[in-house]
Amino acid sequence: MTEPIHEFPIRRYRRDQATELTDRVAVEEPLEIRLAGEPFQVLMRLPGLEKELAVGFLYTEGIIRNLAEITTLHFCGTGTDPLLPPNVVDIVLTDAAQARTGRRHLEVAYSSCSLCAKEAVAEICQKMAPVSSDLTIDCPTLLALMARLERSQKIYQETGGTHGVALAAPDRGVFIMAEDIGRHNAMDKVIGRALLQRLDLTRMVALLSGRISFEMALKTARAGIPILAAVSAPTSMALALGQELNVTLVGFARRDRMNVYTHPERIKD
After folding, report:
1. Looking at 76, 113, 125, 139, which residue is catalytic?
2. 52, 80, 94, 152: which one has the fewest Cβ atoms less than 10 Å from its Cβ?
3. Residue 113 designated active-site
4. Model pTM score
């Protein structure tokens, strides 16, 4: 299994002084997702949680709607050498899920066509039901979870090169997280973990180490997660989507402060 951190020789400059030493960097490698043996998607990712990443990606892209739509899930193409990383995941879907594979990445097309942001959000909302959950959380608990996410990012602490995403259900004692070079991958990994553990996503809070982009808000809504909190800012399209799909979006959640942008009724004093 490939280690997620490599040491790399560098020359460091500090106050006009040069020093030869090694730095610890996050590893980036491709993961190929195959569907019934056919190439489907290549994701550049941090090694680890490959099956979870594949499952989470298919789920948040709207291709599978539950685990029952996965018939088989296994690594392939790694040979017999245990040192080679599992860089290929092969998945067989039910016919219904397979039929959805041609309609993925609808939102990506918006950057190259004449649709405005309002029209893009409206088109997605026609195809998705709003998130249904009466989950609430108080401010101190949410801020404590954000601090826990920061403490849990071990690879980031060593390299400064990864994003972290966690899912938490504090009333059930659940806290799971994942790191990756891409925040989308980290989100898919942790959602994949939750699905494989049969956790109820509608009773969980998602926590991000970065900003809330449109894509991250969309993945949250597709997963049925009612609250998404981040240490940084949301974008305007993320807020429009969160408002329409009944997702509570919280930005700048750090230390003793936060901004609640959409559906504030889920955040208690």
Report:
1. 113
2. 80
3. yes
4. 0.89
